[in-house]
Amino acid sequence: xxxxxxxxxxxxxxxxxxxxxxxxxxxxxxxxxxxxxxxxxxxxxxxxxxxxxxxxxxxxxxxxxxxxxxxxxxxxxxxxxxxxxxxxxxxxxxxxxxxxxxxxxxxxxxxxxxxxxxxxxxxxxxxxxxxxxxxxxxxxxxxxxxxxxxxxxxxxxxxxxxxxxxxxxxxxxxxxxxxxxxxxxxxxxxxxxxxxxxxxxxxxxxxxxxxxxxxxxxxxxxxxxxxxxxxxxxxxxxxxxxxxxxxxxxxxxxxxxxxxxxxxxxxxxxxxxxxxxxxxxxxxxxxxxxxxxxxxxxxxxxxxxxxxxxx
Length: 311
Fold this sequence. Notes:
The protein is α/β, with parallel strands linked by helices. It is built from twelve helices and ten strands. It has helices spanning 4-14, 46-56, 73-85, 99-107, 117-126, 143-159, 174-186, 202-209, 234-241, 250-263, 270-279, 297-304, and strands at 23-26, 32-36, 66-69, 89-94, 111-115, 135-136, 165-169, 191-197, 244-248, 286-290.
């Protein structure tokens, strides 16, 4: 668990440079609420953790620049934070990362280092990549990043009506760890539920087995959540903070994305629609974290039309 005082210090570091995102209801009156992190300046929650981590570092630590490994969203956050403090940013990305996200990383002035999916994953495990210089800001397992993510939990505790559960997309686990740390401290009766695509759901598999297990992984258009395995150290956080881990079929994520567009007038990426897809299976009062809206327009168009998107 990230200490509540650390999350509050992260909020002070971030200040007013991130949006206090709105909560809006969807569907049955008062049962499901959406926390719209897709409205942040970079279209996702990652700016919270990136600003928290970069601002927590000393000038000497970031003199050579900052580095992260990202499928796109954390890359934008780190690029934004690096530009703000005037140092270079370098982002290690998997070759299949969405073009829309890569274009935004480059537009923010960062260098994109494209590698295979396996090499990208290894950069997160190794906390860096040989030949890519700078302070490595881990997109997940960095306490300052998770504390920044936890500011969402502070806002939920302060702004949300009574709710029974918070449903959070699980990618690497940094978003869940931050939010859950704040919510469990301030609203201890609330359950934390994670959502992963069933094509890559290592946390759901670990909960079913009682320990991390190998899974069959299939890449999909839900690129910001799920994965091949749990990152080192994240099972310990999950075991402490998560009450339920759900693997969601892609068809249900597609339907949730269409529902967000038609009923809430919200554009979400796959990870951003996951929480709603999981919440629609439930009967309690939920807050869903719509984590981001950075989706390739051609993929969005095909999904809205009910067409197959492939990979």
